[in-house]
Amino acid sequence: MSRTSDEPIDAPERAEISIDEVLRALADPVRLSMIRQLAAHPHADAGVACGEIPLGINKSTRTHHLRVLRLAGVIAMRTEGTRRLVTLRAEDLNARFPGVLTAILHP
Q: CA 71, 77, 83: angle at the middle one, nearest 5?
């Protein structure tokens, strides 16, 4: 069965997002770079295709890092056609942990 564009890929609900998991996910410099680039992307609100964030890593490594971020509740992913679009869960993170995302994005 294929996914539709309105069908998100599994991630924790807002209330299930743990600060420990968020910080653990963002402790990796590659994932931190991904989040900062995603937040600065001109189409960040609509979703950014996974490959549009330049990182200099191979596809399987990128997939791993995106999975860690998704399972920690930092990003949301959805399928649109053959692409996977990524969005930063800023609203959820700000609601759960006020000020943390700002400190991460603007050190």
A: 135
Q: What are 79's strand-pairing partners?
A: 84
Could you tell me the residue range of the domain that residue 80 belongs to? 14-105
Average pLDDT over residues 58-82: 92
Cα dist from 69 to 1, 2, 101, whole Å: 25, 23, 14
Q: Are 27 and 61 in contact (CB under 8 A)?
A: no
Q: Does a structural domain hold residue 22?
A: yes
What per-residue confidence (pLDDT) applies to 23? 96
Eight-state DSSP code of residue 11: -
SS3 category, 3: coil
- Whether residue 29 contacts residue 80, with contact meaning beta carbons closer than 8 Å, is answered with no
Region at 86 (left for phi over 0; alpha for psi -120 to 50; beta for the rest): beta
Average confidence (pLDDT) over 22-26: 97
Q: What is the percentage of the chain residues whose pLDDT exceeds 90?
A: 63
Residue at 7 is within a domain: no
